[in-house]
C-alpha cells in the first residue's frame, strides 16, 4: 500500500519491505537509464542485481497520469498566517501598570 505524505509533496508512505522498494527502483532504472556509474560506486552494486519483484513502471506512470489533478498542498492564504503570539488580557495590562 502507498499513500501521500502530509509533510512533503514528493514523499510517499508505504508499508512495503525494503527489498521490494529496491526492486521498484531497479525496474525504474531499467525503464529510465541513468548515466554510467563507476564499478566502485554503491549505486552500481545495487543496480547490478536483478529485481526479484518485477514491476511494470509504464503501467504505474499511466495510472498516475490518469489520476485527477487535486491540490494536496495549497499555498498559504497570506504572509505570516500561522500561529500568532498568545492573547494578552487584563492580567497583562495590570502587570504593565504596576511595573
What do these coordinates show?
The chain is mainly α and 99 residues long. The chain contains four helices and two strands; from the N terminus they run ββαααα. The chain has a two-stranded antiparallel ribbon with strand order 1-2. The longest helix is centred in the N-terminal third of the chain and has 14 residues, at 18-31. The chain is elongated, with a radius of gyration of 25 Å. It starts with a strand and ends with a helix.
Summarize this, please?
It is built from four helices and two strands, in the order E-E-H-H-H-H.
Form type: elongated
State Rg: 25 Å
Largest sheet report: 2 strands, antiparallel
User: For the terminal residues, how far apart are their CA atoms?
Assistant: 60 Å
Itemize the secondary structure elements and their pairings:
Blueprint: E1 2-4, E2 12-14, H1 18-31, H2 42-48, H3 57-66, H4 90-98
List keywords for this structure.
mainly alpha, two-stranded antiparallel ribbon, 6% strand, elongated
